[in-house]
Amino acid sequence: MRANPQDTLARIRERGAVPRHVAIIMDGNGRWARGRLMPRAFGHRSGMSAVREVIEGAVEAGIGYLSLFAFSRENWERPASEVEALMDLLVEYVGREADELAEKGVQVRVLGDLARLTPAAAAAVREVVQRTAPNARLVLNLFISYGARDEIVRAARALAREAASGALDPEAITEETVSARLYTADCPDPDLLIRTSGEQRISNFLLWQLAYAELFITPVLWPDFTRKELYGALEEFQKRDRRYGRVTA
Ligand code: FPP
User: Fold this and answer.
1) Listed residue (232, 230, 240, 241) closest to 63, CA to CA
2) pTM
3) Which of 154, 157, 140 is nearest to 97 (CA)?
4) CATH number of 161's domain
5) Which atom from ligand 1 is nearest to the alpha carbon of 47?
6) Rounded distance from Cα 221 to ligand 1 centre (Å)
7) Is residue 243 part of a domain?
8) Which residue from 4, 57, 201, 211 could staple onto 227, CB 3.0 to 4.6 Å apart?
9) Which parts of the chain register pLDDT below 50?
């Protein structure tokens, strides 16, 4: 008999420790589309239902923070038609899902170099962020036009400015001081990183924050990722022995 997701979730809850923060590199939309002899944009569109699935799954499982890598700074180099399709999808996604996100208690944050978004995408994002700001059940970080090295460079610039102005003693800079200048300032670090489509890379995602995350790589292509796969990753996470460089008793 095949396990149904609700049974898996009940088992996960019994065992206890659900990760507080799950980060996902959503990969494989292009290959998924190619396998169906369809254009890449069709794969991205199909990826939207997987986004809906993991948000619902995360809310059900009691995950506090969900970080999705939707568009990297490097993605701006893709053909203009694909970039345009992704921007349009973002506007469509927000327009279509904002009510439900608000209703479910999801607080949406959009993190990255947002100055580069199209005016329509920037407006859509601003609205959903503002509208869902009071929610606290699940924080959904959508990373758009994001690169981790760029994020760290921005943090370094901010620290340098503060030091140059005399507001910050360079000797007083700690890991916490740096974390507080990142886009994710008030989020705990991810406990679990999921990457779909089998690629074994971090791809410039949350380089600082993933220092102690458990990695879960699945061959499933993003449009096929459902809450069943999410719960499978949570079960695997619960079997891991997180030592943070120490030894277990
Ligand atoms: C990676 O697949 C995926 C992306 C670059 C875009 C992710 C976008 C979505 C899941 C849909 C929109 C989501 C929101 C929140 C609006 P790829 O194109 O690199 O796939 P490939 O490696 O198979 O070519």
Assistant:
1) 230
2) 0.96
3) 140
4) 3.40.1180.10
5) 10
6) 10
7) no
8) 57
9) none
